[in-house]
Amino acid sequence: MPVHAVTQGETPDTSQESYATLPDIRRSALTGLPVPARDFLEGGAGDEWTLRRNVDAFSDWLFKPRLLAGVKPPELATSFLGVPLSMPVVTGPIGADALFHPEGQKAVARAAAKLGVASMAPEASSFSAEELHAESPSTVAFGQFHPVGSESSFLRMLERLEATGFRALVLTCDCPTAGWRERNLRNSYSPPHEAVRGNYPDMESAFGHLFRQDGPTWSWRQLGRVMRRTTLPWMAKGIMTADDAMAAIEAGASAIGVSNHGGRQLDGQPGALDVLPEIVDAVGGEVEISFDGGIRRGADVVKALALGADVVLLGRLVLYGLAAGGETGVVRVLELLRDEIGNILTLLGRGSIGGLDRAVLRGRWQ
């Protein structure tokens, strides 16, 4: 199978008239993908209970609007780990990116720069960290990698990311091995080596490097000791409990990424939104918090922010845009998110994302 798995033909029309909503983009993306690539994108671990719960959890929180609040057009600008953002959105570290468009994360980086948001360069990308950073040095601000394998290979990647000029690092901590993904097993499918070898061109398989188990998995103590070698701020991603959040902070993390890997790792966990409030309360503002898991529209972004996240990371939404129309498709995803977030803030009677808190929500059980 070629690396680029999108159906060949004319470039999709990603104008406003063609893609008026985010569900339109998703439908177009999935229609154009072969079944194995579509299942790789859409699938989760096990029975996919956690995958579904990520999305369903948002319906447990209902908005409480404040009427006639006299608000001005809402202000969406913020920052994360010192990186300025036009809105509280960062494109996440999505690997195997050229499966969905030949330009993969390069297209994502350019789209993010056009909308004034930041992006993350994944370790398992189709392109090297250096190539992605070069696309937009000011907005491809985060380099992502995994605390797995030998310390020597980890340190080599750490030194590369430092030398490249990233402003912060992202450590994905929930992948000591790949999740039990039954759609992939049924299809006998794994991404072609070319789709994940951007940072390891001389290795047989980047996934083999990342998930081969030659010894014990890493510990927070080990990670903290090794990360003392860098002066860059770093985020621990994949946090689903208050205990792990506090362990990450003790290890030196400057930010916490609340995430269950989109339901692709351990099935049977809560939805990411289910645990966000308790983690926010435990952290108590000591570090910044990102959130990902189940974001499908601007309303979901607003709910995550109201429950205490500082920014959201986008995963599948970005890939829908990428598969539907490359850079233009990702731009359209970000435009629609921005516009819906602003619309909802106005209807809630809040003039900025800084004015969001739990007072704008009520639980369905209340």
TrEMBL record:
Binding site for glyoxylate: 181, 261, 264
Family classification: Belongs to the FMN-dependent alpha-hydroxy acid dehydrogenase family.
Keyword Flavoprotein: yes
Entry keyword annotation includes Oxidoreductase: yes
Residues that hold FMN according to the record: 93-95, 144, 172, 237, 259, 292-296, 315-316
Coiled-coil stretches noted in the UniProt entry, renumbered to this chain: none
Annotated organism of origin: Kibdelosporangium aridum
Gene3D superfamilies in alphabetical order: Aldolase class I
Pfam name, any one: FMN_dh
Name by which UniProt lists this protein: Alpha-hydroxy-acid oxidizing enzyme
UniProt lineage: Bacteria, Bacillati, Actinomycetota, Actinomycetes, Pseudonocardiales
Sample GO molecular function, one term: FMN binding
